[in-house]
Every structure is written in C-alpha cells, then in structure tokens.
Amino acid sequence: MSEKANVVVVGGGPAGMTAASRVKRFRPDWRVVVFERSRYVSYAPCGIPYFLGGLAKSIEELVHYPVRVFTEERGIEVHTEAEVVEAGEGYVRARFKDGTERTYEWDKLLIATGARPRIPRIPGTELKGVLTLRTLESAEEAKRTLSQAERVAVVGAGYIGLELADNLVRIGKKVILIELLPHVMPTLDYDMTALVENELVRNGVELHLNETVKEATGNGKVEKIVTDKGEYRVDAVFFATGVAPETALAEMLGVKKGITGAVSVDASMSTNKEGVYAAGDVAETVNLVTGKPDWFPLAPVANKMGYVAGASLAGFKETFPGAVGTAITKVFGLEVGRTGLTEERAVKEGFKPVSATITANTRASYYPGSTRMTVKLIADGSTGQLLGAQVVGADGVLARINALSVLVAKRATVREAFFSDLAYAPPFAPVWDPVIVAARVLLGKLAQS
User: Fold this and answer.
1) SS3 54
2) Is 63 helix (H, G, I), strand (E, B) or coil?
3) Where are the alpha helices (DSSP H) in 325-433?
C-alpha cells in the first residue's frame, strides 16, 4: 500500500527546507513530504567547528528552525530519522527509525541530499576517535570525544580544517594540522596562503604540509596517526579532506550527473528526468566567470538553489544564474575571503592572467584600530576582465570580498573596479580603499602586458 504526495523532498538541509517552504507558499493545498535521515532539519553544519569551540553552547543553536515550525506553521509533512532506500519512476520507499518501510508516490521530487565527507581509503578509519563532521549528531559525538582528548590531529587544511584548528586551540587542545598539498587553502593562491600559514604557526598549530596520511592505529581507539613522513601520538583525528556530492538517490533514479560529479541541472533546477529536480550541494551550476559547469558546496548557493527549486516545483518560472564561489572564513586573528578564480585556475581555464597584490590600511591611518590588509586581484590580460580576488586581513575583509564578488560575477573590468563607487569614512576605510589601490596597481600592469 502506498501513499500519495504532490511533492517529495529528500534531504532536510537548507536547500530542501527552503524549497519545501516555498512550494507550500505557492501551493498551500499540496501535500509536501520531506525525508531527512538525521534528527534535525534546517541546520547549519558550517557552525559545527564553533560549537566544538564553545561559541555555540548547545547543538540546538545551530538549528535555524525546529521541526514544528515546518509541520505546524507551514503544513509540511516532515519525517526525521527516515532514509529513502529505494526510488523509481514516480515513487520512493522510505525506512523509518522503528524499522518500518512505506512507499510514497510523487508527482514531483527534489533531490536535496547534500554532500558527504571524502574519507581516505586507509587502514584505521573505523577506530573510535576518528571523526568526520557532516551532521549535528556527528558534532555531538565529536564533542564527547574531545572532552577526553588532549592531542588532536586535523587532516585537511581547507575551510573546515582551518576552522577546526582555530576552535580546538580555543578550548586548549594541542593541534596537529596535516595537509597533502604544499600549502593550506587550495582555493587561494600560494602567495596568499603564506599569510594564513604564519598565523596558524603563530597560534601554536603544529603544521605539516606536503604530507600524506597513511593510516590511523590503536587498540580499538585511535592512538597514532601515521604519514609518509612520521608518526604522531593523538587522542582523536578529524578527517576534513573535502566533500563529494551525495548522488546515491540520483543514481537510483537514473538522473544524469555532470562533469563535476554532481547532478546536472538547468537554471530551473530541473534534471534530465521529468518531474525530478535537484538543489544544494548535490547539484552543479554555472561558474559565472568561465561560463562552464562547476560545483559550489556553499550554504548561500544551496539556499538560493532551494529558493529556485521551490518555485519550479510549484510550477512557476524562476532561474538560478550561477555563482562565483565567494567564501570567507576566520583563522585566529585573520579574516580570509576569496571569490572567482585563483591565478592557477585561470591558467587552466585558458585565460592569460595578470595579477596584482597590495597591502594597505583598513582605515584612515590616524583612526584607532587601523590594521593592514592584503588584496590580490586577478584579471585576464587580453580583455581586462576581473577573474578573481583574494583578501586577507585582521578586519574589514567581508565588505571588500562582497564588493569584489559582485564585480567578478558581472564580469566587470579592472577599470570598472577602479572606478566603482565604494563608501569612505575614516572609521571604515582610507580614502583610497585597498580594493581601489589594488585595481589601480593592476591597471598599470595590464597596460604593460
């Protein structure tokens, strides 16, 4: 016996719940059913490092809305701790926490299954104390483990790895940060990552670059991490070695994947299967700089994809234009922002990049609290188009990287960036903002190229 739903949403993260809410806003009489395999919906996994660092006092603080908001106020049928185990043309079969299974027929379906951690295929990952962070339940497990740990290894120096290192030091742990690449943060160019690496070392992080983890060892519980360069005693290990789109449901349905490995969708979030949509970290989109398919597992992108998918599911025309990968993080006393292409990526995409890097004051030099900020701009030497930007400083990075992200997305030239009308007042910026200074220097370089 099966049940009938107008819309089935698989995945209760930001994209899924945004889409479900929007469908009910447009079609209040429709039955919208959401399946989420964890206990929580509408949660913020980006906040997990800060929960571990004590800045969020309870796991509930990372939940945007409790389930009752969606069920009681919005009329959405939400099933937590429920996993879709089978799917086909017009139906899904879900397994609930009590072990029972039910089949649901659907008119339209949204795949919002997000991304899963990439875990190296090495011995010892099953040991107690070896951790990954995907769900809020995994954060709770990590919190319990950390209460009895002194030395913690973090494998992977991307955004999550760096935020973990920062927050683990905050709670008094000795942190060993191991990265396969010769520098941290692969979404930045090497010259900018040097600033971040110095900040990590200055704050007591034991940094191991260009080093490959071979295995974790221990008697039931992790006691040592072994690399190609040494062995390190540890009480816990976090694998923050990136994520991959969770495409198992898409594969069940025969949905096409794109060149990135994520689900291929058009601007309305439709897949190649009639009535099937995808949004969030499971789906790829267009890179607005290259014009090619790309994958951006970032919360703002996921939410907006969900917004578009909700309208499309309800039968209204809405489109998602694409993204440029704008992101920001905090590493101890540094704010680190980036948007668009790195210089290295620009070369791979066939551009002839020219870059300029400057360091300038964040405020008028006489105003209290002024600090130094480093800005790198990357442009195409042939057209002058702004391809990407990276900003590192003690404060004020968010405003600059957001302004630059709009310029990059609109394919502005460096000249247009130089003449952009940025705000000025001594408490916030010098009259020559660091962004404008960088654009002025880059204009000079372009004229010589």
Assistant:
1) coil
2) strand
3) 343-348, 397-409, 414-418
CA distance 430 to 393: 15
User: Which among 212, 148, 150, 204 is positioned nearest to 179, based on CA atoms?
Assistant: 212
Q: Residue 69 has which token pair?
A: 């908001």
Ranges in the chain, pLDDT < 50: none
Cβ–Cβ < 8 Å for 47, 139? no
Instruction: Choose the catalytic residue: 38, 46, 93, 207.
Output: 46
Mean pLDDT of the chain: 96
Can 311 be counted among the known catalytic residues?
no
In angstroms and rounded to an integer, the radius of gyration of the C-alpha atoms of the chain is 23
Q: Can you tell me which residue has the tokens 């069920």?
A: 71
335 - beta bridge partners?
A: 330, 393
Work out whether the CA dihedral 252, 257, 262, 266 comes out positive or negative.
negative
Q: Any bridge partners for residue 243, and if so which?
A: 117
Beta strands in 114-272 (DSSP E): 115-117, 130-131, 151-155, 174-178, 206-208, 213-217, 224-227, 231-233, 236-239, 243-245
Count the neighbouring beta carbons within 10 Å of the beta carbon of residue 142: 23
Query: Are β-strands 115-117 and 243-245 bridged in parallel, bridged antiparallel, or unpaired?
Result: antiparallel
pLDDT value at position 52? 96
